[in-house]
């Protein structure tokens, strides 16, 4: 079997109705597969006002808005019309991108028809309860995730650190890597614009600490704002630039009244915004990769990040930035203060990050997943069995 014989059925809870790093990676993957001669069909909730045009043919599935997070939609079933479409498409492999109802139903359907399943892991769902006051639910979420992933033939993680965590959590016996790429035309140091900074009221001699991402609590907004409080108490001169939108914006604005909120940016505007900061501060522990971390490195910024999955596979502590114990407010403040006070250290770390980012080309990383598809499909064609769900440890 080669790539032109692949017929990939992709199931995801969000393909393009809200823009995030995961669904943009999925769209890039579909584009790459189509370019290589594979057939692809996407099954996902749809909306009349998508965040960006989708790549490939999307078949809509019923979904309901998530309580308290109405921008996201939860698929609730695979109705008969969609089942008929799947049967007519006759996929050689199923790819499930989210462990919700749609993903579970897709895995069951694949197993019923003897088709292999590859699952991609895009976020650390088991960490979410701690941000919404229900941390006691984390073991239950872990158990549910383990049950889901163990029914798949293989899972792929976007970083080696995340893959190792999945192995330690015993999520699967076959864990591979499907990392992320960066578009160097969009993210490069030449995008930096002092004129754009001035238009936001940022002085040329102010050191800008950037935050990039959706404004939701699980991105570590509390840690970010507590760290900025520390910098202010120390009298460290800086300016915070927040790039992104989300339901927690009002809370974040109240916590950081002196910050500049640039709102949602995309394409070349996003490249300009990221490059116009002087460093990126990413305290999140929920990422499995950290697209914004790689994009910041590509434009030549030092990155201060939590020592967590994703970031620790990208940032080399002391070379391209600093890795700090999650939640370590004082240590985060120390690292940021160093880069605020020492422009040579900023430039040196930024240049090292720029060089490290060159290893991440989209075609190369997508081919790694295609190779996994082919390996799993060949194993099944050679008589390999669907995985049996072992006991939860």
TrEMBL record:
* One Pfam family this sequence matches: Glyco_transf_4
Family matches, as CDD domains: GT4-like
Gene Ontology terms for molecular function: glycosyltransferase activity
UniProt keywords, alphabetically: Transferase
Task: Work out whether the entry's keyword set contains Cytoplasm.
Answer: no
Where do the Glycosyltransferase subfamily 4-like N-terminal domain residues begin and end?
20-185
Keyword Transferase applies: yes
Name of the protein described by the UniProt record: Glycosyltransferase family 1 protein
Q: Which organism's genome codes for this protein?
A: Alterirhizorhabdus solaris
Q: What is the lineage of its organism?
A: Bacteria, Pseudomonadati, Pseudomonadota, Alphaproteobacteria, Sphingomonadales
């Amino acid at each position: 079997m080669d790539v032109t014989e692949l017929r990939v059925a992709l199931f995801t809870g969000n393909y393009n109705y809200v823009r995030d790093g995961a669904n943009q990676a999925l769209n890039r993957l579909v584009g790459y597969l189509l370019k290589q001669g594979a057939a692809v069909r996407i099954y996902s909730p749809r909306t009349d006002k998508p965040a960006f045009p989708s790549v490939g043919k999307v078949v809509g599935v019923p979904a309901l808005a998530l309580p308290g997070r109405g921008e996201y939609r939860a698929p609730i079933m695979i109705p008969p019309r969609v089942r008929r479409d799947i049967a007519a498409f006759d996929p050689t492999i199923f790819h499930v991108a989210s462990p919700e109802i749609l993903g579970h139903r897709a895995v069951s359907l694949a197993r019923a028809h003897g088709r292999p399943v590859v699952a991609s892991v895009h976020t650390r769902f088991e960490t979410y309860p701690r941000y919404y006051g229900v941390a006691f639910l984390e073991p239950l979420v872990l158990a549910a995730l383990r049950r889901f992933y163990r029914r798949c033939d293989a899972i792929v993680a976007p970083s080696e650190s995340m893959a190792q965590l999945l192995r330690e959590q015993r999520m699967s016996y076959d864990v591979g890597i499907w990392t992320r790429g960066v578009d160097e035309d969009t993210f490069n140091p030449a995008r930096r614009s002092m004129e754009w900074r001035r238009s936001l009221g940022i002085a040329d001699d102010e050191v800008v600490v950037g935050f990039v991402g959706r404004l939701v609590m699980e991105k570590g907004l509390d840690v970010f704002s507590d760290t900025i409080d520390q910098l202010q108490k120390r009298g460290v001169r800086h300016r915070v630039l927040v790039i992104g939108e989300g339901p927690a914006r009002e809370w974040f604005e109240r916590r950081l009244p002196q910050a500049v909120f640039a709102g949602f940016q995309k394409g070349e505007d996003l490249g300009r915004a990221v490059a116009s900061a002087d460093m990126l501060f990413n305290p999140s522990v929920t990422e499995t990769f950290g697209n914004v971390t790689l994009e910041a490195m590509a434009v030549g910024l030092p990155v201060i990040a939590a020592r967590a999955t994703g970031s620790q596979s990208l940032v080399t502590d002391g070379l391209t930035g600093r890795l700090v114990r999650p939640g370590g407010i004082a240590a985060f403040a120390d690292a940021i203060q160093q880069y605020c006070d020492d422009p040579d250290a900023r430039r040196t770390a930024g240049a090292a990050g720029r060089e490290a980012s060159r290893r991440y080309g989209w075609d190369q990383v997508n081919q790694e997943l295609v190779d996994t598809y082919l390996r799993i499909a060949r194993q099944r064609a050679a008589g390999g069995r669907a995985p049996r769900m072992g006991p939860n440890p």
